[in-house]
Amino acid sequence: MLRLNSHPSGRHFLQIPGPTNVPDRVLRAMDYPTIDHRGPEFQQLGKKVLADIRKIFQTTQPVVIYPASGTGAWEAALVNTLSPGDKVLMYETGHFASLWKKMADKLGVHAEFIVGDWRHGVDAAAIGARLAEDRNHEIKAVCVVHNETSTGVTSDIAAVRRAIDAAGHPALLLVDTISSLGSVDYRHDEWGVDVTVSGSQKGLMLPPGISFNAVSAKAIAASAKARLPRAFWGWDEIIEANKNGFWPYTPATNLLYGLSEACDMLLEEGLQNVFARHRRHAEATRACVNAWGLEILCQNPSEYSPALTAVVMPEGHSADTFRKIVLEHFNMSLGQGLSKLSGKVFRIGHLGDFNDLTLMGTLAGVEMGFALAGVPHHAGGVLAAMDSLRAAASQPSLRAA
Ligand SMILES: *Cc1c(COP(=O)(O)O)cnc(C)c1O
C-alpha cells in the first residue's frame, strides 16, 4: 500500500534523475526568515550567489537567475535571442529535446529537428553538414540538450561548437544543462556556448523553483535585436539590477539561501572531484546492470551519462509495475520511461547528494524489486557494483580523474 498518511521509517530514496535528494545543509540554510529583498543583507546574498553560480557554469560572464522551473529558462533562452519566423536547428536526443522543440514552435520560431533514435547523443557532424548547406545563414541558433534525462545519454558540446565553427556559421549555440550542471563536467566559456539553460533541482541539490541562463557577449548582442515578445524573461533589466546584487522583482529569497549553501558544498568538494564521483557511481551502476544481464538504453559507451542510467525492461515486463513494487516495498522512487519509452525503461538517478552507500542501497532496492516483480535477471548485480566501487577506492588517481 502507498503510505501517504503514515511516516515510513528511514529516509525516502528519491532516485529519480531530478528532483534529487536535498542535503541537510541546504535544508537548514533555507530554514531562515525571509528578508527585505531591497535591503543590505539581501544585497550581500545576491552578490555572493551571482558570483558563485558563475564558477559552477565555469564562466566569467553573467548568469541570470529566474524564479521558475527549468522550462521557464528554456523559454527565456529563446525569447531573448530570436525573432518571429527565425529558423533554429535542434537535435532529437529524446523527450526533453522534443519538448524544447515544441516550445520553439509555439513561440513562432521554425524549429528544424535532426531526427534521432533516443539511444544516441548529438551527431555534431550532422549539425555541421546542415549548417554548411545554410549558405544564407537563415539558421539563427543551434539548440541541444547536454544530458538527455529521458535516455541517460550525454552529448559532446565541445564537438558541436567545433562543427559550427568549421562550417563558418554565425548561429548561436544554446544548450540545456538542466540535469548535468553540478554533476557532469560543463564549461560554458571554454566550449563557446552562447546561452546555457539550467535548473535548481537536479545536480545543484536544491528544491525545484529557480532556473538559469548563462549568457555570452554574443547572446547579449543578439538580444538587442531579437523581437520575440518578452517581459518577465528579459535579460537586460535583470542583469542591470544584478550589478548591485538585486532583482527587478521579488526573487526566490529562501531558494537563494539554499543556492549559496549548495555552491559552497560543490566548491568545497571541488568541481572536478564532484564530476569524478558521478562518473564512478555511473560506472558501478553499469557494472551492476551488465551483471543483471539487462540492457542499458544508451548505445554509445562514450556517451554514457554520469548522472543517470536508463535500463531497458525485458520484453513483456512493465517498468511501471516494477517501479510501483519498488516504491511500495522499499520506499524508493525510480524514474519512469517518458513518452515513447513509457513502461519500457526505468531510470536510476545517481546524481546530486549521493555517495557509495546511497548507490548500494539504490541498486539493492532494484535487485530485490526484480525478484519480487518476477523480472528475469541474473543475481549478483549489486556485488558487481561493490567490486567496481572497491576497485575505484583503491586507486586514488581514479577518484579525482
Ligand atoms: C528536468 C529537465 C527539464 C525540465 O525542467 P523543469 O524544471 O521540469 O521545467 C528540461 N530539460 C532537461 C534535460 C531536464 O532534465
From TrEMBL:
Domain Aminotransferase class V: 14-322
Residues the entry annotates as binding substrate: 347
GO molecular function, one term: alanine-glyoxylate transaminase activity
Record keywords, A-Z: Aminotransferase, Plasmid, Pyridoxal phosphate, Transferase
Pfam families found in the cross-reference section: Aminotran_5
InterPro entries, A to Z: Aminotrans_V_dom, PyrdxlP-dep_Trfase, PyrdxlP-dep_Trfase_major, PyrdxlP-dep_Trfase_small, SP_NH2Trfase/AEP_transaminase
Superkingdom in the source lineage: Bacteria
EC annotation from Swiss-Prot or TrEMBL: 2.6.1.45
One of the GO BP terms on file: glycine biosynthetic process, by transamination of glyoxylate
Entry keyword Metal-binding: no
Enzyme type, top EC level: transferase
Cofactor: pyridoxal 5'-phosphate
Residue list for modification N6-(pyridoxal phosphate)lysine: 202
Alphabetized Gene3D superfamilies for the sequence: Aspartate Aminotransferase, domain 1, Type I PLP-dependent aspartate aminotransferase-like (Major domain)
Transmembrane segments: none
Protein family membership: Belongs to the class-V pyridoxal-phosphate-dependent aminotransferase family.
Protein name per UniProt: Serine-glyoxylate aminotransferase (SGAT)
